[in-house]
């Protein structure tokens, strides 16, 4: 991500937040590159995790 999107200093408050920050950064870059002529067809860009895999996930809130 960039300083325009989300500053790392304000996005990370706990050690676990690093993983979510990097995951969001990965998805932002993949979204930006998706469909470009330089995209490698063997490695298509998609958001992770796919929406289908989220259906059985819990938010951890009870």
TrEMBL record:
According to the UniProt entry, its GO molecular function terms are: flavin-dependent sulfhydryl oxidase activity; protein disulfide isomerase activity
Which SUPFAM superfamilies does the annotation name? FAD-dependent thiol oxidase
Q: Which reaction does it catalyse?
A: 2 R'C(R)SH + O2 = R'C(R)S-S(R)CR' + H2O2
Its GO CC terms are: extracellular space; Golgi membrane
Q: Using the UniProt record, name the top-level EC class of this enzyme in a single word.
A: oxidoreductase
Span of domain ERV/ALR sulfhydryl oxidase: 1-48
Please list the cofactors this protein needs: FAD
Q: Where is this region: Disordered?
A: 35-62
Ordered alphabetically, the record's keywords are: Disulfide bond, FAD, Flavoprotein, Oxidoreductase, Signal
UniProt record, GO biological process: protein folding
- What are the EC numbers? 1.8.3.2
Spans of biased composition, class Polar residues?
50-62
Coiled-coil ranges per the record? none
Q: What is this protein called?
A: Sulfhydryl oxidase
């Amino acid at each position: 991500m960039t300083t325009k999107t989300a500053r790392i200093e304000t996005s990370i408050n706990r050690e676990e937040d690093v993983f979510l920050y990097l995951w969001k950064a990965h998805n932002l870059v993949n979204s930006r590159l998706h469909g470009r002529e330089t995209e490698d067809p063997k490695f298509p860009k998609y958001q992770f995790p796919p929406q289908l895999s989220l259906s059985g996930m819990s938010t951890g809130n009870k």
